[in-house]
Automatic annotation (TrEMBL):
<dbReference type="Pfam" id="PF14588">
    <property type="entry name" value="YjgF_endoribonc"/>
</dbReference>
<feature type="domain" description="Endoribonuclease L-PSP/chorismate mutase-like">
    <location>
        <begin position="6"/>
        <end position="145"/>
    </location>
</feature>
<dbReference type="InterPro" id="IPR013813">
    <property type="entry name" value="Endoribo_LPSP/chorism_mut-like"/>
</dbReference>
<dbReference type="InterPro" id="IPR035959">
    <property type="entry name" value="RutC-like_sf"/>
</dbReference>
<protein>
    <submittedName>
        <fullName>Enamine deaminase RidA, house cleaning of reactive enamine intermediates, YjgF/YER057c/UK114 family</fullName>
    </submittedName>
</protein>
Length: 155
């Protein structure tokens, strides 16, 4: 892939929002050495939760994947806020995906693909990452998904 991250976002019709401000006593990201760790990002769309509720209890797999994609967009917004330029991303190392789930829901990994697929499309090989997908009983603001990311910063 020779196109820039910004041009791939534009090709997908994605305009990064302003990075979300913390909702409590934490910072939105931490830079340490050659690493960037984002705090968990919710599926915000237009400043509000875009997908709420629990997977397997009123929220479809497709809506869960949409929520994960929204989280990924917000992760990139935080990365841009932290780094100033998305081209400074050396590699996405890890995503941790939290899925608000009914007790019987077991497809968290498929929900997480909404973020993983999008980030590989946008970042190319730099977007291939390790991942955990975990079901939880509830998330802040009744969000369906929350995702945090760890990046290596290009040297």
């Amino acid at each position: 892939m020779t196109a820039t991250i910004d041009s791939r976002l534009a090709d997908k019709g994605v305009n990064l929002p302003n990075a979300a401000a913390p909702a409590a006593n934490y910072v939105p990201f931490v830079l340490f050495g050659s690493m960037l760790q984002t705090s968990g990002q919710l599926p915000l769309e237009g400043g509000a939760i875009g997908v709420s509720g629990k997977l397997g209890e009123g929220v479809s797999l497709e809506d869960g994947q949409k929520a994960a994609r929204l989280c990924a967009i917000n992760i990139l917004a935080q990365a841009k806020s932290a780094l100033g330029d998305l081209e400074k991303i050396g590699r996405l190392l890890k995503l941790t995906v939290f899925v608000a789930s009914a007790p019987s829901f077991t497809e968290q990994h498929k929900v997480a693909n909404g973020a993983s697929d999008f980030l590989v499309e946008i970042l190319g090989e730099r977007g291939r990452h390790a991942r955990s997908a975990v079901g939880v009983p509830a998330l802040p603001l009744d969000a369906a998904v929350e995702i945090e990311a760890l990046f290596e910063i290009a040297q």
